[in-house]
Amino acid sequence: MTGRIHSIETMGTVDGPGMRMVVFLQGCPMRCAYCHNPDTWKPNTGTQMSVDEILEMILKKKEFYANGGITCTGGEPLMQIDFLTELFERCHEEGIHTCLDSSGIMFNEAQMDKYDRLMKVTDLVMLDIKHIDAEVHQELVKQPNNKILEFARYLDKKHIPLWIRHVLVPGVTDKEEHLVRLGEFLAELSNLQALDVLPYHTMGVVKYQNLGMEYKLKDVPAMDPKVALEKKQVILNGIKKRREERRDS
Predict the structure, then answer these.
(1) What is the pLDDT of residues 85-103, one digit of tens each?
(2) How far from 24 is each of 96, 108, 128, 136, 224, CA to CA, in Å?
(3) Which of 201, 192, 200 is nearest to 238 (CA)?
(4) Of 11, 39, 62, 70, which is the most buried if we count CB atoms within 10 A?
């Protein structure tokens, strides 16, 4: 089986535990205003590669990835779920740790058999929750967030280890009321292992200029990392408060 690949990074250190091969799959239905990979949006482009070709790449340096593994990201890797599943199945046969970095936007209960098959060979999911408020989410990424939240609940039921990622954009995704609500939602997930709050940066602006695309957040400053830490604590407080309420009820 072949998939459409945007690029491959052989020394990834921030896309899951340990040293990882990071495979960027082509195609994404989201249009995040702060996306730093808009060149991954178009499906049916990129380089066509087989599962065997990618597996051969990682097996040549298997010892190098002994404490890490492979991460599939994008774009949105679940747009190519059949290819992704076969790749992860082959990796599992070789004892390679598998991580899915996804927005969850493609989750579809009508394809539950496919998702169940994929989850059998998925060791970790890194889920990007762009915004907890449905209206703001629609405006920010041009997609609803209900499928994303459903996917998070599905992962909880399947007991798949979960890392949550949330990008803090000044004036857009950093309002305290929304961060508290995000924390309250995360409190429902028993499989939550980590919360990665990422300060918004402006490094993607140049890429948009080079691609001749409009960057919608061009006037938004980067998020101060110190402020991001304070905002993360707001989410953690929301988690703690909700769990205490559930324990006392």
Answers:
(1) 999 999 999 999 999 999 9
(2) 18, 22, 15, 27, 28
(3) 192
(4) 70
